[in-house]
Design a protein that fits this description.
mainly alpha, globular, 294 residues, Farnesyl Diphosphate Synthase
Length: 294
């Protein structure tokens, strides 16, 4: 597991999220540190399994075989988080509720990931992609925000508000991640044939059935053709497409802030969460940019 954690490093410190929720509820982030460990372990496992599902190799190095990494990912995502929860000095009822959240997070996240894998660009809409995002990214974030609220002793109503905040934050983070994929030049979404929200904006912008068929043709060819990936990237960065994307992105940002306003909480810690929302809601793509590689 240690080797898997070293080779499957998360690029952003989102482990702070449960501590921030707990601090907003109680003024003290400390008791949620074990949940931060759960969060890191869950995402380490999920990201490795996602690499396997994509079929383009994994991040395991020569020091860690694929079979070793697979076994470690099962432990890090499911078994060890439950052991962490069972070690917490809280009533059995709270332990049971926290354990149930882990199970629900896996179910919702996996369902969203399966929808993503089975995505069909021809049938996809902006709404259908957001539903997939709400599962694959929103599920795990809602899991951890709800867990932190439960650990803090928050009311059922507040737990549900934090759960909804986690869903919206997860959508924002997936939209952020989609942009990073293009900016970095990794283009994993194009290589995997992933139906992203940005792609549905392109399809919505197609003025004629013929234009739509051309976009779908580039999508199908992008898995194996550098030329197709370059053309599709050009379409993704069209001004009208990015304008639509930015407007929708801002809508999710506004909703996340609305939920934080409804929640209130410790005034010293709420600004940090608002900053995290604004970070996730950045519009990074520009029409004139040149990706690192296509």
């Amino acid at each position: 597991m240690s080797r898997l954690l070293r080779h499957q490093k998360l690029r952003h410190p989102l482990s702070v999220l449960p501590m921030m929720v707990h601090a907003i509820e109680t003024g003290d982030p400390g008791p949620a540190v074990p949940l931060s460990a759960v969060h890191v372990l869950w995402w380490t496992s999920a990201c490795y399994l996602d690499d396997l599902a994509d079929g383009h190799g994994t991040t395991a190095s020569a020091s860690l075989s694929q079979n070793e990494a697979l076994l470690a990912s099962v432990l890090s995502g499911a078994v060890v988080p439950i052991q962490i929860i069972r070690s917490l000095p809280v009533p059995a009822a709270v332990q049971g509720a926290l354990t149930a959240e882990i199970a629900t997070g896996w179910v919702v996240g996996t369902e969203g990931q399966l929808s993503d894998i089975d995505g069909d660009a021809d049938r996809a809409t902006r709404n259908s992609v957001i539903e997939a995002y709400r599962g694959k990214s929103g599920g795990p974030f809602s899991m951890i925000t709800a867990m932190a609220a439960l650990l803090s002793g928050a009311s059922d109503e507040r737990v549900e508000l934090w759960r909804e905040f986690g869903y919206i934050f997860g959508i924002l983070w997936q939209l952020f991640n989609d942009q990073e994929d293009i900016l970095s030049g990794r283009n994993e979404d194009l290589l995997n044939g992933t139906v992203t929200y940005l792609l549905t904006c392109v399809l919505d912008d197609a003025a004629t059935p013929r234009a739509r068929r051309e976009v779908l043709g580039w999508c199908a060819a992008a898995r194996n053709s550098e030329e197709a990936r370059a053309e599709l990237t050009r379409l993704l960065l069209a001004p009208a497409v990015l304008e639509k994307y930015a407007a929708d992105l801002d809508g999710f940002r506004i909703e996340a802030h609305r939920l934080l306003t409804a929640l209130g909480g410790d005034e010293h810690h709420v600004p940090g969460m608002r900053h995290l929302v604004d970070h996730a809601a950045q519009m990074l793509l520009r029409t004139h940019l040149v990706p690192a590689a296509v």
